[in-house]
Design brief:
alpha+beta, single chain, 79 residues, 3 helices, three-stranded antiparallel beta sheet, 14% strand
Length: 79
């Protein structure tokens, strides 16, 4: 089995759906380099490694994106 194989079918069909890096890149618009650097540094989003295949749970990705949300400043701007 080639570690760089392309698979577009999800491995599981529910909230814990596992996505390959390529699917994460296309659905969440994260670059591959950014994902690899975060893995190397031990930073979120969490991932699963099975052999040389790296997978991300959809719920972990959604939680990570939500944690990065920035609320606009609700204070009035003084002129």
């Amino acid at each position: 089995m080639d570690c760089r194989g392309k698979g577009s079918k999800p491995l599981v069909e529910h909230d814990s759906e596992l996505l390959r890096e390529g699917e994460v890149k296309s659905e969440y618009r994260f670059s591959g380099a950014w994902l690899r650097k975060r893995r190397w540094l031990g930073l979120p989003p969490a991932f699963v490694r099975i052999g040389c295949v790296v997978l991300y749970e959809r719920r972990e990705l959604n939680a990570f994106v939500q944690s990065q949300r920035v609320e606009p400043n609700r204070h009035e701007v003084r002129r």
